[in-house]
Write a structure and sequence with these properties.
This protein has 272 residues and is α/β, with parallel strands linked by helices. The chain folds into two domains: 34 residues; 227 residues, Rossmann fold (3-Layer(aba) Sandwich), CATH 3.40.50.1820. 36% of the residues lie in helices and 19% in strands. It is built from nine helices and ten strands. An eight-stranded mixed beta sheet has the order 2-3-6-4-7-8-9-10, sandwiched between helices. It has a two-stranded parallel ribbon with strand order 1-5. The longest helix has 33 residues. The protein is globular.
Length: 272
Amino acid sequence: MRSVIQMTRSLKGVAKIVGILAGAYALAYLAFFVLQDQFIFLSKRLPPDHVFEFKQPFKEYFIKTDSGDSLNALLFETDESRYLSRRGLILYFHGNADNLQRWGNYAVDFTQLGFDILMVDYRGYGKSSGTPSETILYKDAQVVSNWAKENLDYTNLIIYGRSLGTAVASNLAAKVKPEVLILETPFDKINSVLYGFTSTYKFSNVNHIKEVTCPIVIFQGTEDWVVPMYSAERLKPFLKKDDRFVVIEGGSHNNLRDFKLYHETLKSVLLK
């Protein structure tokens, strides 16, 4: 009889713990749903008088949007003395965190191959004004593309997206038809990388790359805990015959450029 009573008490204790955990998850789920913008858009603002510092020269621009906000952009130009002519322009759409003070340090990976690269901060990031959203990021990418076409001298256009920026890049590539679309650590859709939480945003690379006609190159690391391999691999069925899915063994979400394979592939793609 005593053992039955003890078992009953134990079951009640387990049920209580389960109830507490379920309640905590429900509260966390609700909090994420209400505050999803703060979780997805990890922006860092910069004061208007911030002076960027990089190891290579750059030009700074403010690109106006239809709503009156301005997008802060940096143009890193290749060293023309090393090449007969510039090989093209890369439009770079960065991840969901920080601002151009961080992302501008990666420009050298492209300028050393003879390409100019235009990087832009999303609304609410760095010195860009306004507030980001999925629809706004897509519209602003088109604005940046139009501005580049009107103000910069180039023949070949490459679109590059990283992490959250892959959805922005693939959406734009479906519209403007660049020479190549390069995606670094792309997910299939945003909800697959939110650890069981749900966002009202779609950010679906799957939907976009179905409409992309140019060659696509994907870089993905095997040790990426932000965008797991399974999420990126769900894009494979939608790739064309000559598209490339490059797996970097040991690569994580933020260090693919530390690997030789990344640079070798980038060179083979851009200098073909």
